[in-house]
Amino acid sequence: MADFDTPEYRKYRDIPKLEEGTMSDSAPFIAKPVFQGPLGFPGELVENWQEVAIDKMGDLLGKYRGLQVYLDSCVKCGACTDKCHYFIGTKDPKNMPVGRQDLLRSVYRRYFTFAGKYFPKLVGAKDLTKEVLDDWYSYFHQCSQCRRCSVYCPYGIDTAEISMAAREILDTVGIGQKYCNEIIGKVYTIGNNLGLPKRALRDTLLDLEEEIEEETGLPIKLPLDVKGADILLVTPSADFFAEPHIDGLIGYAKVFHEAGVNWTLSSHASEAGNFGMFIGSYENMQDVAMRVRQAAEDLGVKRIVHGECGHAWRIAYSFWNTLIGPWDFLDQNYPIPQHICEYTWDLIENNKLNFDKSENDHRVMTFHDSCNVARATRMGDKPGGQFEIPRNVIKAVCNHYYEMDPETTKEGTYCCGGGGGLLTDDLMEIRVKGALPRMEALNEVVEDHGVTNMAAICAICKSQFSKVLPYYKMPMDMIVSVHQLVGDALILTGSKEALEALEAAESSEE
Amino acid sequence: MAIEIGGKSIETDEEGYLVDLSDWTEEIALELAKSESLEMDEPRWEVVNFLREYYDEYQIAPAVRVLTKAIGKKLGKDKGNSKYLYELFPYGPGKQACKIAGLPKPTGCI
Ligand code: SF4
Ligand code: SF4
Asked: What is the distance of C-alpha A493 from the center of its chain?
């Protein structure tokens, strides 16, 4: 593996001793001009970048009131310092949330506040030099925009917003991140983050249908582009491609089949994810989201259900109305949008699904709350539904379930380490180091309760964990999809297994 | 970046993937495998050849599930699983085998 050390589990969870500059060399690949243009950004660093950057900062300050409040209100109380997984894993002071904010704040002070303009030294104001710009590029790509720090800040300062703004400024001067921007480009040209063309998608789905039929004896479908379907499922394209995601997709299909609904996937909106948010670009976020609306209108569906994707759920739940609403053409009797966990839990509560929980008896489960779901959304109609509903679903289908340390779950959950556009090989070091607090908590329940698997409802979390678990000497397939558990335990009416169970019951009665 | 073969220089990206798919030859595959410290034995060639065929038809690498199934058919059922593929390509069949096959790296939330 790469040339850095995986951090050791900490004996004491106190504030790490600072090690300045440990991560100053970490920076993702820069996007080539071909990837910048389609997103509306200059291909490379523009000549008058300093002027452009400061103008853009002014523009953002005017547009997002919150940003200015966040930049103005920090009192350096220190409550956030040890709350960031990247700081815990790297000890680099610029990865303390307040340290990260200060990278932007010092420039803001210099150009936008009276004191900073005339007495810069007194207020820690700094000129925007190339060095500062490089620091931005490095450290704002060491923030997964998980918002954990904001939970502990007495002023609710949201470093994620600051990171997004910084990345938007960087894009505007021509320095984009290859990973995110290439992916957004693929959504525009092909329809999803993976670049999976329609024909490949269709044939992959047919292949999966064959596999499910072999397993169950039932013609369970993964319909694509069906006009007039009731439900449009939008899900991360990783669900068509990667492990363990694909088992989650099979799980959704089984649930829809058992519920007897008419549902469809869309090749135009074959992606729930929306990296426009990661790069802080409202315009790109809107363009990506618009594909879902178009697909829903073209197919004439009544409902939209979201597959297991963390940041997509945030965008749908919190931003869809302003981005691409109103949703007057959808059936108002159902939540708009609806999460697949809400959908499944509703069926379970209404006794519409039967399970053989023993199918999951070889698993001892725990659950990882994905940051965007936990801190930026809800599910169901009760507060905390975004925590309870996925857990309820898991407990309805598994006999063995244990919680991790409560400091690391629900609103206090730690990011997997790969969110916010960091899920790329060129950032492997920060990803592995940032996973430390989650790996510690997982390791504890492994040791205390024999936990064998951790479930998640986010494509990024699943991919990140399957990559970093081996660094912490745990098997990559420990991470599973929630709907994989559902699919494995679901008793499908008329399936081979259900028939065998029926026969067994009848012969024992005789 | 670039790799040198027979006096010719072949362009690769930052991570060593071929920039131009049509540059690929078996010789280059051997060279790319060497840079990954892998020996190109029979099963590895099977994977690489399947990836190239699939890409030719679909302009993308196959889903892991599609790949494992195809390899299971070619090399025997006991080999049709991702564990075996990771034995062949420790950095991941998708990424490492794609590189040797001269295909672009699959990226996304994977
Ligand atoms: S948003 Fe998350 S990753 Fe960013 S500074 Fe705060 S805790 Fe760290
Ligand atoms: S907790 Fe809030 S106010 Fe305190 S140092 Fe951190 S960002 Fe500033």
From this structure: 34
